[in-house]
Amino acid sequence: MQRERLVTGFWSLAVLAAFLALWEWGPGLAGIPAFVLPPFSAVCSEAVRIWGAEKLLWHAGITTAEVMIGFVLGSFLGALIGFTLGASPRIEAVLSPYLLALQIAPKVAFAPLFVMWLGYTIYPKILVAVLIVFFPVLINVLTAMRNTDVDLTNLARSFSATRWQIFRMVEYPTTLPALFSGLRIASTLAVIGVVVGELVGGNLGLGFLLVFFEGQGNTAGVFVVIGALTVIGVLAYYAVVLAERRVLHYLPSADTPVR
Amino acid sequence: MTPSRSPAIEFIGVDKRFRVKGSSTELLAATQVSFEVADGEVVSLIGPSGCGKSTLLNLGAGLAPPSAGAVRVAGNPVSGPNPHVAFMLQKDLLMPWRTIARNIEFGLELRGVPAARRREVSGQLLRQCRLEGFGEHYPHQLSGGMRQRAALARTLAVDPLVLLMDEPFSALDAQTKMVLQQDLARTVSEQRKTVLFITHDLSEAVALSDRILVMSERPGTIAARITVDLPDRDNPMARRKHPGLTRHVNELMALLKLDDGTELH
Description:
Largest interface: A-B, 22 and 29 residues
Distance between the termini of chain A: 21 Å
Strand content of chain B: 15-25%
Structural class of chain B: alpha/beta
CATH class of the domain at 43-150 and 176-247 in chain A: Mainly Alpha
CATH topology of the domain at 43-150 and 176-247 in chain A: MetI-like fold
Shape of chain B: globular
Oligomer: heterodimer
Number of helices of chain A: 10
């Protein structure tokens, strides 16, 4: 078991090393100029320069804050409306065509509109993130509410449970695994929403830096920002996974033997 | 609770119709069902699949109203879920997010029993149902038989007058099943509980019951009533060895026309 894990880890690192080597020396060998595809070392030294000269951490911090706020607000609203619609099929039947339309509409297309409404501030970015995060959470929660075991709600009813008790003690916990898979998707979508918002307007955040470096023809800088955005996305994703592990600790996992 | 003269649970001329989805017609699931189960009695309900046995159980639990007739528990008409009745199904319905102890306490919690008292009850039931030491485990850590025992403990926790059981042991392997039948029979007779027990297993019905009601095909109604004249109702293992058991099973098979190849399920 232990040995197997070491071997897997070794090969993973080997793939990374091969990739970086290819990135470093491949473009030169293939005759691709550095302004099209800068080698890995150039991107690294550019990262060090940007860190000081362009306040990389400051912009990354703003993007992170927007992602967090957008994620929390969007998830909260999505879950809230998912629970409400799940509890009242009548309202869901009335709203479902519009929900479907809104779900299909490309949410990032709203970014210019939000910038026109709210100006070059952080708010339009947060709003795009809220909108894009909202639907996967809502749909997951709603579907899980629909699939609650009728026998389980009947059991609660036979014990004279109130509607609120049925929600709190049966439906809500039933939906948690689905809610968390929605949140996982949402965590990566939130980053996309924020970056698109930043690309559209303003002078804040990593999305702005992308446009800024594009204007300078600074390919290495663009790579640095893409790297930074990926780091934020990975952190957001693992924050959700960590929370999920704590909340859903009661679910059987591969390494706990089932009797 | 007034167990005095009135039966623990009685069905009086009960009909149950269901609206058929996407059609204006109604389906008559059960008709003219009349029977009573005396206090402390164990009565099994057998019959072909789809004959409305489970429907009757839902009516007894107050989860649905009868279309005609009345259901009474301890002399009072059933108008909704009530504290005298608790049900148990083939599915254990243990909630994966609750420990076994907290699953057992579920009904008490819904009824607002204070935590300390709930602990007391679940502790006692864990011992009684031979689940001691498993109170803090989660359902997935238990075997099927243990889970079903926990479901029984949850049913008993609310101290109901009547237990409604819908094939509670049918998903278990043969040996586990016999052990649980033994546990149930002993508990029921010690606590003088009244039981209405649905099963497809004819020898299980004979081994556990005072009386057996045979239902007809849909629309279901009581086609025959049999009194099990065997000793040891509190000891199904002993009853299973009794030669009279086979005689009763044969009688039931004839009533269900199983010899003619009618399908039971």
